[in-house]
Structures are given as C-alpha cells and as structure tokens.
Amino acid sequence: MNQLKPLAKKIFEWQARAVLKLYKPKIIAVTGSVGKSLTKEAIYLCLSKKYFVRKSEKSFTAELGVALTIIGCPTGTGTALDWARNLLLGFRLLLWRRSYPEYLILEIDGDKTGDLSRVSKFISPDILVMTAIGEVPSHIEAFPDMESFLFEKRSMINAVKREGVIIYNADDSVTANLLQDTVINKISCALGGGADFVGTDLEILYANEKTSRVPTGMSFEIKARGEADKITTFQSIGVQNQYAILLAFAVASNFGMVRSQIVASLNKFTALPARMNIISGIKDTTIIDDSYNSSPVALSYAVSVFGDIKTKGKRVAVIGDMMELGKYSGIEHRKAAEMLSKKVDFVICVGIRSRKISEELQNFGFSESKILSVGSSEEAGKELQRILSVGDLVLVKGSQVMRMERVVEEVMRHPEDKRKILVRQEEEWLSRSE
C-alpha cells in the first residue's frame, strides 16, 4: 500500500483540480500560525446561515487534506479502505453532477518546505484570511530559516485571484509586513484601533459580578464603517478567540451579510476543545484549558488574558514544552518566564525544554518554592492536584505532543465528561503511550 500512496495522492490532487473546475465554488483559505481552526469555525458559523458551505474538518490542513476537503471525503486515509472510498467518491463527483457547496473554507497549513507551495498551484482563493504568524511561529524548526517559512506564506498570497481580497490580523507585525507590498485589496483587523475592523478591549464575564470569581465568557465590541456591534460568547475566553470572531465578522461583511445576522451568528460561537475553554475543577477551582497546542505568540495570548481574570485563590500555570522551535527554543522558553512572572503565583513546568522557564523564573524574583519542574503531563496532574486550594485559577497549556489534556483530566470536576470536553479523545490518541 505504501508504494501506491504517492500515486493515490496525485489522483486526489487531479480530482480536486477537476472538481474546482467543474463546480466553480468560491474559496476562502485560512492560513497563518495561530488561531486558524478557530477562525475557520467562526467564518463557517456566519456563512452557513445563508450559503451552502463546506469547511475543512479536523486536521485536514496539509496538501492531501485540502484535496480531500474539496472532494468532500468524510474520513482521512488511515486504511486501504479509506483510500479506496475517497478515490471512488472523487470519481463519482466528476462523473455524475451533484449538489456542491457554493463556498469552501479551507484551513491551509504547512509544516515543512513545499507544503503551501504545492497547494497554491491548484487553488486560487477568492478570499485569503491570514491569522497571526508571530516572530517565532510554530513549525519553524522544519525550515532552514524564517525567510523560507515566509516564502511558503507568500505562495498563498500570490495564489489569490486578482479580484480577490486578503483579510488579515494587522496587530501581528510579521503578517502585516508580509502583505505590505501586496496590490490585492486588503482588509485589516486589529484590537484597539488603526484598522478597517476594530475589536475593543476584552471584558471578562462572571457568573455573578458582585460575588463570583468564576469566569463564564467574554464580551467586546467590533467597530467598522462608523458602527459598533457587541459580541458576547460563553464557555471560553481569550485573545485568539477574539481575533477569530473579528476576522469572521470582516469576511461575512465582505459578502454583504446583514450586520444583525452576523452578530446573531457570532454570539453563538463556541471555541473548539482546549482553546481557552472554561472548565470546573476539583476543590471549587476553575481551569482555563488551552492544551490544544502552543507557540510563543499563542502562549503570550493565553497568559495575558489569564492574568486579568479575577480569582479568590492563586493563579497556577501548568506550562508544557513548546515544540518545533528549533534554534529559537531556548530563548523563547526563557522569554515565557518573564511573562509568567508578572501574571501568575505558581508555575508547574512540564518537559525538558520548559526547564528553561523554571530556571529563568528565579532570575525574575520568583520564589523557588512556587516552581515545580516535572517530566510528564501525568506527573504534572498529580502535583497540581496536591497544591490546589479552594478558589484557585489554573491555566493549562503546551504543545500537542506533551498531551497536556491529561493534566486537565486529572483535576476537572467531572472527568466522566472528558470525551465531550477535552481534546484528543479519539481512540487513536488514547491508545498512544506518549
């Protein structure tokens, strides 16, 4: 089967090209480094109320995943049967004309050189949505240098149709600079001001503003074209969620959707698992579960909001290694220590790389008694359970391979609900030992 995979991939790509040519859907491509999936979900939430829309599912983000989404494959390519089913589905779509989405929302990521370049050869986005990249983005380890990484992003910019639009996070200097000389129509989104679509400061909501310190959601305004609309969401908080909503608002507005309809849709926005989700913990504690993945910019987003949440107890951050940073790993973990020293009361560092955080925290005056360094998420969960007191607030964050969701499982009030609430609860993930 392994020998046939390269041939099957070429067939999938050919099928995807043919499907796009036959059905001519509008393409909304979402790329960047932080918040792509959240942005994709928020855009889908808006557009699906009015149009026939398909979005990328799960981790269908690389070259093969984009082709599978275009074809409409419900599963990946884990088994020979999956490959056969997907190939047949593609041929059926081409041989017998059927109902097909008006819009495709494609989350496009590249974790190595050439991924985005290849994708850009067979898709031409009508709208390109660019989230934050950051000075040290995730997956940078797989590229020779930052310029090689940005070259991949440029390939997607160059693929946008001449009459297309680029909607982007203008607060991220790397993204903004990348687009500086682009002649394609651009729509900027930012928090605070100086953009076409502006999000105001985040207001954290509580169960009872006077007596409770339990966060329930967030609220902010979006200002554009002389008007302001208030967005209120529950069950999660965070800057990355705010950016996702702001970018989605701009996309829906670009399609001419009625503002009241956009607002009604985005007020129903619920973050994906492990993206700053609010979870009840043992001993009447509150967990902010951001365990999906981590990078320097994503960690800074999480810590900034975490430090602003009111709490009766102490703020405890459980921070796992940030992976795939290559030569930047040491310095970025040390930078994390400075952020944490200003925002939290107790830190549990998980993994070899996070020992740099532990070492650096003391240089910022953090008491050694308020720092723990452990080797695994299982150990972190046990230690966290031991140190928690009534009313504490906990942030859990780390890269995917660190399996930080296990920390959340250890201290969540209702672990029986873990499959509905936590990330990576599929059998394939649960069967992994690490």
Structural write-up:
With 434 residues, this protein is an alpha/beta fold. The protein folds into two domains: 259 residues, 3-Layer(aba) Sandwich (UDP-N-acetylmuramoyl-L-alanine:D-glutamate ligase), CATH 3.40.1190.10; 154 residues, Protein-Tyrosine Phosphatase, Chain A, CATH 3.90.190. 38% of the residues lie in helices and 20% in strands. The chain is built from 16 helices and 16 strands. A hairpin with an 8-residue loop joins β8 and β9. It is globular and about 65 Å long.
Keywords, please?
UDP-N-acetylmuramoyl-L-alanine:D-glutamate ligase; ten-stranded mixed β-sheet; 38% helix; six-stranded mixed β-sheet; Protein-Tyrosine Phosphatase, Chain A; 16 strands; globular; 434 residues; alpha/beta
